[in-house]
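queue> pop job 88
queue> type: inverse folding (structure -> sequence)
queue> payload:
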């Protein structure tokens, strides 16, 4: 909660934009096609909401007046929401601006944010990943579109309607790392909740619609004005939150003389200057210092953050980043002499897959990640560090202390064109169970692992999975 007479200046501090993006030196065409997917989910069986359908209708209508090609989904089930995101992402290309808006229930589980369809049957945390849509999937789709600018608006930070059946007492949504060129606006700050409104619109969307009417504001200024208005109207109880950065300018509602309905123009390329570390951290808020440290992304910048906030909310992440940067780089793989044959060492690869399944069934994250490379193309999340995978696998084993995975077909093996690298696809039968909740899930899944031999040892360098069948018990 923000307090004191300098409330306004500190709110502005909360809205410092983080991340980085590299544009080409060629300006984007103006105007650019504007593509939007607007979703409003209200008709939840167990926890219906008052405003989301009105919010989506009004926001979609406003975007149409601002030149957007809008696809509108109201009270979408999981299939429609998944297909809508897929179709939306396929419309995007390097010449378009994309906008995704969701009003409805959203929850955070194990650090991941999920958008809830109206037909979700969620009895506990274990059901969420199967019944809801991972917001990370949306961000991955936007990243793959490779267009210059995407805007994501999540009015989904309401109370968790399933909290009584969850082991953890999560509130609101968790922060997400925005891909390059993406701005994310949450209805309130991470870990907090936004209430459904009493009038036609929720408070957040009401103020966002008002900000969109102001000509000449850049996207960041629209979001900032919305945050100030929401904070004022809620007496400081709700403060919208922003993640991401763009280096050019985007105007929802250009003023006269701003040259077209859409302007996204990167600044001229400048000579890179050596890093500077003389920032006056004592004059900045904690979030500003953290954003500065992440932008520099150096051991020294993270240390400056820790010097100022040794027990701050980002202190653990800062120490992990320092630890990763201080680790010596992995030894390069021994040079591979090209062979005349492209044959795959099938017995060797099969032995590794069997070892992988044994480690997966061990229930130990440390045992499992010992055979992962330092950087892995991980599901739909892009390349992540080994420490990230450790945390993710530990969360999986905590949720499912008893897990069994069994190979039910012979793996298909393919060369990738990279010496010493093989792709293996195979089907497994899985059965996971939680003794504390006395609930389990069984089924089959298609698995794709890319493995590479380095220093005489196989390591996982990419992992994906697609659940084929599933049964809860």
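queue> result:
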């Amino acid at each position: 909660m923000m307090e004191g007479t300098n409330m306004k200046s500190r709110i502005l501090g909360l809205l410092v934009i983080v991340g980085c993006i590299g544009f080409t030196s060629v300006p984007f065409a103006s105007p650019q096609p504007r593509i939007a997917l607007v979703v409003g989910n209200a008709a939840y069986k167990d926890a219906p909401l008052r405003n989301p359908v009105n919010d989506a209708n009004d926001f979609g209508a406003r975007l149409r007046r601002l030149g957007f090609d809008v696809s509108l989904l109201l009270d979408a089930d999981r299939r429609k929401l998944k297909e809508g995101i897929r179709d939306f992402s396929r419309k995007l290309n390097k010449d378009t601006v994309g906008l995704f808006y969701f009003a409805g229930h959203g929850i955070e589980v194990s650090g991941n944010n999920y958008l809830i369809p109206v037909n979700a049957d969620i009895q506990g945390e274990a059901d969420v990943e199967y019944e809801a849509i991972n917001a990370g999937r949306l961000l991955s789709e936007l990243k793959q579109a490779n267009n210059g600018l995407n805007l994501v608006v999540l009015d989904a930070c309401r109370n968790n309607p399933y909290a009584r059946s969850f082991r953890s007492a999560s509130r609101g949504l968790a922060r997400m790392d925005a891909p390059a060129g993406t701005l994310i606006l949450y209805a309130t700050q991470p870990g907090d909740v936004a209430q459904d409104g009493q009038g036609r619109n929720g408070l957040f969307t009401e103020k966002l619609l008002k900000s969109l009417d102001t000509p000449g504001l850049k996207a960041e200024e629209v979001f900032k004005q919305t945050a100030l208005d929401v904070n004022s109207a809620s007496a400081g109880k709700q403060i919208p939150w922003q993640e991401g950065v763009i280096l050019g300018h985007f105007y929802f509602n250009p003023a006269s003389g701003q040259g077209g309905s859409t302007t996204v123009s990167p600044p001229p390329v400048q000579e890179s200057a050596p890093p500077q570390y003389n920032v006056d951290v004592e004059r900045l808020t904690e979030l500003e210092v953290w954003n500065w440290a992440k932008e520099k992304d150096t051991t020294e910048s993270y240390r400056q953050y820790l010097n100022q906030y040794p027990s701050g909310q980002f202190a653990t992440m800062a120490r992990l980043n320092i630890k990763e940067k201080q680790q010596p780089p992995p030894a390069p793989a021994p040079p591979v002499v090209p062979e005349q044959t492209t044959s795959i060492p099938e017995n060797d690869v099969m032995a590794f897959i069997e070892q992988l399944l044994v480690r997966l069934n061990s229930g130990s994250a440390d045992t499992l990640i010992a055979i992962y490379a330092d950087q892995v193309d991980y599901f739909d999340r892009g390349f992540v560090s080994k420490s990230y995978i450790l945390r993710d696998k530990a969360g999986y084993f905590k949720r499912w202390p008893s897990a069994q995975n069994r190979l039910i077909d012979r793996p298909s093996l393919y060369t990738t064109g990279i010496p010493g690298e093989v792709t293996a696809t195979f089907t497994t039968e899985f059965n996971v169970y939680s003794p504390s909740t006395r609930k389990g899930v069984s089924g089959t899944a298609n698995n794709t692992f890319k493995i590479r031999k380095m220093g005489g040892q196989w390591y996982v360098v990419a992992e994906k999975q697609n659940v084929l069948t599933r049964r809860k018990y």
